[in-house]
């Protein structure tokens, strides 16, 4: 089997389930060493078992905490020797809430995980990245088009695209690329529609041209592509992975 990422280190946040887990398994299959974090260590351990023969570092990390992120990055460098690829996948999926009923606590929770977490990780890894390194961030179709009663979530995902495009310009001259994946209706445990089940799942299935949910592995394949040489001239791009979303649908995506 080809190992294009042999002797390269890939740092993945939110690696305990869904797209983060699928990407860890994908990158391990391509030869990468892994530095994985999640707030749920049991889930993280389950991911690690699927990458059993891969050199790796695991840690339960709240990406919204500067101190925990700095320790995680320091330990990654100490154990694995460097960082070449970064996949910012940690985040909180939406709950549909009218704005006037939205609490300060809900705003803070989503901003902390979905935006501050990416900021903390990116700021922390930049001094360790060399020419040829690559960052991929997870936004959403909700970072491209709005959804009623999901103003806070959409704000974080729109903001993440803006942040990523700024990083593409700031880090590009150093030979470091930053790109974004924007998943649509993906079959993951934290997808809001999956959690609701029933009619919500049916709406998601009918909400795209392919007439099915996407899989975490299908997103992971795109992430691996963005890390690889085949995408070497892509920087600041936003790749929609949504099966051909229909504009009239309002059910949210999920990791």
TrEMBL record:
PROSITE patterns associated with the record: ADH_SHORT
Highest taxon of source: Eukaryota
Xref: PANTHER family: (3R)-3-HYDROXYACYL-COA DEHYDROGENASE (PTHR42760:SF83), SHORT-CHAIN DEHYDROGENASES/REDUCTASES FAMILY MEMBER (PTHR42760)
Protein name as annotated: NAD(P)-binding protein
One of the GO biological process terms: fatty acid biosynthetic process
Tagged with keyword DNA-binding: no
GO molecular function: oxidoreductase activity, acting on the CH-OH group of donors, NAD or NADP as acceptor; quinone binding
Keywords: NADP, Oxidoreductase
Family: Belongs to the short-chain dehydrogenases/reductases (SDR) family.
Pfam family, one: adh_short_C2
Keyword NADP carried by entry: yes
């Amino acid at each position: 089997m080809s190992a294009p990422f042999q002797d390269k280190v890939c740092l993945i946040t939110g690696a305990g389930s869904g797209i983060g887990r699928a990407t860890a398994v994908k990158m391990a299959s391509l030869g990468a060493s892994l530095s994985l974090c999640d707030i749920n260590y049991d889930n993280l351990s389950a991911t690690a078992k699927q990458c059993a023969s891969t050199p790796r570092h695991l840690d339960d990390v709240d990406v919204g905490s500067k101190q925990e992120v700095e320790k995680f990055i320091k330990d990654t460098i100490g154990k694995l020797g460097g960082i070449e690829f970064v996949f910012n996948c940690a985040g909180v999926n939406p709950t549909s809430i009218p704005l006037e009923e939205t609490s300060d606590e809900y705003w803070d929770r989503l901003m902390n995980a979905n935006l501050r977490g990416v900021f903390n990780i990116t700021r922390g890894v930049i001094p360790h990245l060399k020419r040829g390194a690559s960052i991929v961030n997870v936004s959403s179709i909700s970072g491209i088009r709005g959804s009623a009663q999901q103003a806070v979530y959409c704000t974080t995902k729109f903001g993440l695209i803006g942040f990523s495009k700024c990083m593409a310009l700031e880090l590009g001259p150093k030979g470091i690329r930053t790109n974004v994946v924007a998943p649509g209706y993906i079959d993951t445990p934290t997808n809001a529609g999956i959690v609701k089940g029933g009619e919500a799942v049916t709406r998601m299935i009918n909400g795209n041209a392919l007439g099915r949910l996407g899989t975490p592995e299908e997103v992971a394949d795109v992430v691996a592509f963005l890390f690889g040489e085949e995408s070497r001239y892509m920087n600041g791009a936003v790749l929609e992975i949504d099966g051909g979303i229909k504009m009239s649908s309002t059910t949210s995506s999920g990791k």
